[in-house]
Amino acid sequence: MDPSAESVPPEDRHRLRMQRKKSVIDARIAEATMDKGLLLVLTGPGKGKSSSAFGMVARALGHGMRVGVVQFIKGVQSTGEEAFFRRFPEVEYYVMGEGFTWETQDRERDVRAAKRAWETACRMLQDLELQLVVLDELNLVLKYSYLKLEVVLRDLNTRPPMQHVIVTGRSARAELIEAADTVTEMRAVKHAFGAGIRAQKGIEL
What is the DSSP string of 27-55? Predict the structure, then answer.
């Protein structure tokens, strides 16, 4: 029977399509048998990169996991995620930046801040007890060459085998994208800021 035939009732066509879809998905799930620590890269000009990362922090905490967070650029203005996740003893949270690069206007100062932040990140990347590490805005640090890309890739590649790492920020380097297991690019369709609306608590802050 051709499920697309006009003679087949719509509810039957839908059921047959979903049966075929389920068989394909079930087969793919059955083939996925490996466990490993993932490197995830969240990039692109759209909103939601850090928000997605902190959603996974909440998910990890729900599973009783220990989490480390290093924020590389943000630092001047307090955020809701920082205020919230600092309440959890399972989370090590470090805000290591001194604000966005157009605020500091001092490359050497930014480089020093990035190197201090990476020292903290490296300690986390060697900690067997941390099951998830978030490196927020690391992509911008790499874009401006505040850290050596080869050093960052080396340290990421030598972390504990089951440790997950999330890297956020615009303009992810091609080499990091290549090294990652999962890459998501946020696309900007529309943003309230373009209409003159400032950052709102609970949304951007």
Answer: HHHHH-------EEEEESSSS-HHHHHHH
